[in-house]
Write a structure and sequence with these properties.
Elements: H1 2-11, H2 18-32, E1 37-45, E2 48-54, H3 57-69, H4 73-80, E3 84-86, H5 98-103, E4 111-119, E5 122-131, H6 139-160, H7 166-173, H8 176-192, H9 196-210, H10 214-222
Antiparallel strand pairs: 1-2, 1-5, 3-4, 4-5
GO molecular function: RNA binding
Organism: Lentzea fradiae
Keywords: Membrane, Transcription, Transcription regulation, Transmembrane, Transmembrane helix
Length: about 230
């Protein structure tokens, strides 16, 4: 799993734009796993969804059909906060999204694997992986997928919070301390009912007022040594 994480991070070096970052993340996913394509979306509800990148025409078709119908593995993964693993799409008609399954039945898709992207309490989107032939991911392949999803989440949240600034900014987004900041941001967001941007601003303001590093404050919140309610205005 360490190798998988290192591979994704290496693929992101010298990225020169936010879109380039996400494209490289998706390409790295496809290269690491026995899949033919992938896509990444941000979501806030069934009708609030935006595809940020799709690796190919089939991946984009999967995204478009889900958006048109408001159902599919991406939505299910986001709503349940659990991976949705469909090793044989021909059997998917018995699942919660039969209309979606029927709509893509003619496409060369044998299996779909969808993973939620979340940091703490923040649900920010989902990543869909597909391959042309049916079949499960092995235990090792699933472990790699989950490790890659963690990196994708950190990168995407960093982009959404405006923390991307070339290669140096990307390395900061992927640092262990920064991941705790993202997780703490999610906990503050959930506790106070505010936006991700406002939650991060509250964290920074509290850290400044207390004369403490942001990473330390985030760690205390994640470890439940500091209540998010202490960050109320």
């Amino acid at each position: 799993m360490i190798e998988a994480r290192a591979t994704v991070i290496a693929a992101l070096r010298d990225s020169n734009s936010e879109l380039d970052v996400l494209a490289r993340v998706i390409r790295a996913c496809v290269g690491l796993l026995p899949v033919d394509g992938a896509s990444i979306s941000v979501l806030s509800g069934p009708q609030e969804r935006e595809t940020l990148y799709a690796s190919d025409v089939i991946a984009m078709k999967i995204e478009n059909v889900q958006f048109d119908l408001g159902e599919g593995p991406c939505f299910e993964a986001f709503a349940t906060r659990r991976p949705v693993l469909v090793p044989d799409l021909s059997q998917a008609s018995v699942l919660a999204w039969p209309v979606f399954a029927a709509a893509i039945a003619a496409l060369p898709i044998g299996a779909i694997f969808a993973f939620p992207l979340q940091a703490g309490a923040i649900g920010i989107g989902a990543i869909d992986l597909y391959r042309s032939r049916p079949g499960w991911l092995s235990a090792d392949e699933l472990a790699v997928a989950l490790e890659v999803v963690d990196v994708v989440t950190a990168v995407l949240l960093g982009v959404l919070l405006g923390e991307f600034d070339g290669a140096d900014g990307l390395r900061g987004v992927l640092s262990p301390g920064r991941e705790q900041v993202h997780q703490a941001t999610g906990m503050v967001l959930a506790a106070l009912g505010i936006s991700a941007e406002e939650a991060l601003s509250r964290l920074r303001g509290y850290a400044f007022a207390m004369g403490r590093p942001l990473d330390e404050v985030a760690k205390d919140i994640v470890n439940r040594e500091l209540s998010p309610l202490e960050l109320r205005a």
